[in-house]
Amino acid sequence: RDTGAERTPVSGITSSMPVQATSTFNANNAAASNRSKIDIFAPPGKLGVVLDMEDGSAYVQDVKDTSRLMGKIQLGDKIIAIDGEGVRRKEAVDISMLLARKSKQTERKITVLRDTGAERTPVSGITSSMPVQATSTFNANN
Known about the structure:
Layout lengths: L19 E7 L8 E8 L6 E6 L2 E7 L14 E5 L2 E2 L5 H10 L6 E8 L17 E7 L3
Antiparallel strand pairs: 1-8, 2-7, 3-4, 5-6, 5-7
């Protein structure tokens, strides 16, 4: 609703009226364009990677200091395929068991989706490994 009030950029606003400002963010709404599909080739044996579940997908929760994938796989990587077999909706424990069954292979291809280009900046003491979408609403009339 347009009340005829002058619209001034937020950065230069002055007002004698009380100002109501609200900010919202959605850390779960990562844009697909900020993700890269990456193939990681794992050697035989234990990998030293801990998986967990989030939003119905397995992701890398921890990489042990002794991991053979250190520097290749990253925290937050979502596991989408193992040796070309889609695992997007499998439980983390099932993916871990699949990797263990294949541990004697000379190589295992782990395909991940990795968030790229997302700045990881603390927001009021909160650090997110997911891209954060922020919008601000300013209402000088309330």
